[in-house]
Amino acid sequence: MRPMSLTMSAFGPYAGVEKVDFRMLQGKNIFLITGPTGAGKTTIYDAISYALFGEASGSSRDKDTLRSDFASPEVPTYVELEFSLKGKNYTISRYPQQNRKRARGDGFVFKSAEAYLTLPDGKVISKVNTVDENINNILGINKNQFRQIVMLPQGEFRKLLESDSSEREVIFRKIFGTEAFEAIQRKLDEQKKSIYKKISNTKTQRDTYAKHIEVGEDELLVKLINAEDLNVIEIINRTRELIKNDEGCRKKFIEEIRKLKTKQEQLQKSIIKGEEINKKIKEKAQLQEQYHCYLLKEKEYGEKQILLEKGRKALQVKMVENSFIHGQNNLNTRKLQYNQAEEKLRQWEKNIIICKERLEKEEAKENGRKKLSDSIATLKNLEDKVKVYEEKSLMIIKSRENLRNKENFLKELRLSVKDEKINLEKANKELTEAQRAETLKEKLDRAAYEKELLITEMRNFYKNSEEYIKKVNKHKENSKSFDEFDMKYNEVKTQYELMEENFRRGQAGLLAKNLEEGLECPVCGSTHHPKLAKFIDGVPTEEKLKQAKHDFDKLKQNRDERLQKLSDLNGIIKKSHEILIEQRDKLKAIFTEDITKIEFKNMMHILTSKGKEISGELNSIKEKQQNITKIQEKKVNLENNIKKLSEHIESKEDLIQNTEKEYTEIYGKVKSEEELLISIEKEIPEEIRCFTKLSSKIKELQQCLSTLEKAYRSAQEDYNKANTTYASTKADKEVKYKNIEDATREVELCKEQLNNKIKEAGFKDYTEYTSLKTSEEGINLLEKDISQYWQNLKSLKDRVEKAAKDTEGLSQIHIEELMADLKKTKLQEEDLQGEEKNLFSRINNNNKALKEIEKINKDIGEDEKNYGVIGDLAKIANGDNRDKITFERYVLAAYFDEIINAANVRLRKMAGGRFILKRKEEKGKGAKQQGLELEVFDNYTGKARHVKTLSGGESFKASLALALGLADVVQCHAGGISLDTIFIDEGFGTLDPESLDNAIQCLIDLQNDGRLVGIISHVPELKERVDTRLEIIPTKEGSKTKFHY
């Protein structure tokens, strides 16, 4: 990044618009910024830093205090920086939050912070957050890194020099783009945790399947499954044996069930056959009983036959009787109709009199109808005037309502403006608080990171201590077991050696037993045997000796194996102890006492307490981080809210003025309309000034008139109708009287015909006929009943004969005994089926469980193999190694070595060869991550020491050399970051003449690389050596700038 021009408006001591054009340097790449104290030299750096990052170059200067006290109210505060980067030009402008004078009227309006970035293609990016993000991406560094490697502000030039490993890691990661290595570390750790979690979950799943095995009455399998540490292989083998036994039992049950089913089939056949025989015997008895009952009814059906014949004769007479009855009914109907006509005639005589009186009454109301008609015409003539009056009244009411709304609206607007001004003041205070919180968050992030690392080390130590103690206890148990076994081994060894000795001796006696004087000895060949070995009874045979040797060798192999396992466990314990000692040393910082004197078991109790304490501190830090994050998240909203509030206030104040003007206009119009309304009121009666009431009155009169006219027409119509109806009713009465006479003659004729027919049918008189007559349907039913009786009687006789033939030689079967036997066999079958189903369910369940357990065992084996590889890689990559260096920090250390080498080239010149910088490679104390620590080697003493022990002048030279070295390495690697500018504020006053001369020469040498160097200093020697100066001239109206060549 190389500045081209810098424009400041009402910024710091610069009252107006002040432009510094760096193009005027004309190829001179080193310049001095001079001027009296307080003139505004550092403000040049502040302006560049504020333009790029929205903050001043020094952490002690607040961005909200940068407005010039010299500036007039109408001049806005802003900074504009034009710079070039990799051959492309960019322009960035920033406006801090400020109160600006209103464009119209008096007073000020609050304006939120603004930022604008113009890219090489002419595209303009706005909004503060978006500009911040883009400028960081373009430069490749953030504000804190900018202060440490490009701009060394007064009082802050030592930060890069004295930063710890963690801080340098963050700086170098951004510069050299090593995020991928850090991502690899994180990915490996995530994979390790994921595989471990998967193995743990899979084992839990396997244990769950094992717990679901149905053990039956196998007590050993119960103990295996209920054990805390499951022996999965033993469980699998034992379960397979259980399944095999269950399958054998199940086959036996199935065979027993088959036999019971065969027996049930035979019983069911016997029951069905018995039920058929019993049914035939029962049916025979029922038929015999029915046949006897039918024989008893034979006389009754003979009498029914006689009644049937008489009923048929009475049916012939009934047709004549029906004609006689019809004639009587007709006569009664004609008499009723005549009486009704006579009564109707009397009623219409009365109606004629009533209708005539009503008509005369309605004719007398003619004058009333005429008056109503005249009144309606008069009211209709007033309709137009009432409409005008009503419209004017409504308009005045609406206008007055509008006036009241305007008054209320103005009142609400004024209250709203007052509230928004209060909210604006509150938002400004909250924004200031949010800006201050950013500095605190960086410290909290660093503290949280260190606490989390410490907790991780404590957890690792605690876990390893637990495992170590378990191994020690196991070693004690195994040692005790080995000692007992070793005693048994020594006893057997002694017995075997004694047996072997007896065998050897016995062999000599056995050989001597068969020797004879003069014969050669098969051992020595001698023929003379002066002293023969004695033969001993009870000597072991060779076979017994071989068996004893085989048993002893097997016992010895077992002992050797136990001894080897004990030795291996001892080696593991020693290695674990070394790791614990190493981990314990890292935790010295959290103990007040000498931890070398504390046992691991006691340390675990202390760590538990300390862990809770540190976790509490971490939770407190995280809570503060969350609060600060919430405050920062509110920052953008606050800035937008402040801008909106300011705009709302200005808009509402303009609206108040416009509303007051509208209120005055409406008020004048209302007064004019009210005077016109008073003149109209005089022409219209008060009760009908409303058009609705007038219309209602007209409608009411029209209804009255209509009612009178309708009543008159109705009276006329009713009178005419009454006269007509009376005449027609009188004629109808005469016709109905003649009908009665005709009906009487017809009844007499039918009566004579009926008496003749009764005599012809053989009945004594009408009484006998009525007692024997019945309907045709009744005759048919009686005839059918008689016929059915004779048919049923014959059918029953045939069936009785057939049933007797079918049951000949058969007897009753006892079905209950057969059913009892069948029920008993079914209960036995159900019991066996229940047992068989339980076995089948257990076999099926256990087979499934075994299948899942074996599948899971295979998966666990593969995962544990992967965990062995990934786990080791994750530990090494994340710094859990001897040197405490992560993968990314190992890569960054290589870059750091290049930076140090480049820095030492200049430091040797500035320090006269006394000091050189070097990366600290020795392992430090504690669990802190290392690899980027810096120390200085003093050639005078021949010893290395921490860079913080350097004096002020020495620190300045080292910091300057380190910043220049970093720029050289970054330029060399071309990692997307261009550092071709450096600004230095003070620091030269701490140097002796020789060091000063060397430092100036190093800066002048930078011109050969085309790098721009800006220096603020009061040291006279600098003014003599550097020709190009930017002079800051203070005046009463504010400072001015001027280049001197």
Automatic annotation (TrEMBL):
Keyword presence, Magnesium: no
Q: A Gene Ontology biological process annotation?
A: double-strand break repair
Look up the coiled coil feature and give its residue ranges: 331-457, 621-662, 698-760, 815-866
A Pfam family hit:
SbcC_Walker_B
Q: Which SUPFAM superfamilies match?
A: P-loop containing nucleoside triphosphate hydrolases
Per its UniProt record, what InterPro entries does this chain match? P-loop_NTPase, Rad50/SbcC_AAA
Q: What are the entry keywords?
A: Coiled coil
List, in alphabetical order, the Gene Ontology terms for molecular function in this entry.
ATP hydrolysis activity
Where does the record place the Rad50/SbcC-type AAA domain? 5-213
| Assembly behavior | Heterodimer of SbcC and SbcD.
What protein family does this chain belong to? Belongs to the SMC family. SbcC subfamily.
The protein in question is named Nuclease SbcCD subunit C
The source organism is Clostridium liquoris
